[in-house]
Amino acid sequence: MVSKLMSPQVAINSLITSTMPDAEIKPFYPIIYDILPGASEFYLIDFTGGVFNLTLNVPYPWVEKTLEFIRETAKTCPNTAIVGVCWGHQAVARAMGGKIEFNPYGDRRGIELLGGSQDKSSKIDFALLEFHKRRVARPAQRFVPLAGDSDALLHEEYNIITFQGHPEMTEDVGMAILYADDGAYTGNLSEK
């Protein structure tokens, strides 16, 4: 059954090409190859999931390089959109001056209904798959919360939107993560 499930990369590609059939998608893996793209060459850069702990005061060199890349792209490439998903949401927040913390309510996993922002500036309700231990405790300046607990953020000036959850995930992708999990997310879950 697991082999029939869609991988997260395939899910992202499928989502993008369903709305932009001619899109050219180029994955980059800075943790492995220490290479980041020339931001101005792209219409959109998507920072996706990962497990590196962004609450640490001193991140690994590849993480610091990624955070600097986010800052520079936001400031110098106004035609390049930045999307942050999961770890990318936290990385964008930290890069731009926000604060990351461990979830005070414990790990979040499964489908979460995200209502409008606490200050009522957003009235959008939506649900996303969530798999995370950390969250954005304080958004960076000029980021507007689109959902409570800073689970979705939009920058007032730069072309940036971020989500703590996974808008690209289908049920199949969520199940693939749970099936492949080493216990980080499913350690205390029942078979159901």
Topology readout:
Blueprint: H1 8-19, H2 30-33, E1 44-47, H3 61-76, E2 81-85, H4 87-95, E3 99-102, E4 108-114, E5 126-132, E6 134-138, E7 143-145, E8 152-155, E9 160-163, H5 171-180
Parallel strand pairs: 1-2, 2-9
Antiparallel strand pairs: 3-6, 4-5, 7-8, 8-9
Domain Glutamine amidotransferase: 61-172
Organism: Fusarium redolens
Protein name: Glutamine amidotransferase domain-containing protein
Outline the structure in words:
With 192 residues, the protein is α/β, with parallel strands linked by helices. It is 27% helix and 22% strand. The protein is built from 5 helices and 9 strands. It has helices at residues 8-19, 30-33, 61-76, 87-95, 171-180, and strands at residues 44-47, 81-85, 99-102, 108-114, 126-132, 134-138, 143-145, 152-155, 160-163. The strands form 3 sheets. It has a 5-stranded mixed sheet with strand order 1-2-9-8-7. Strands 3-6 form a two-stranded antiparallel sheet. The mean pLDDT is 82.
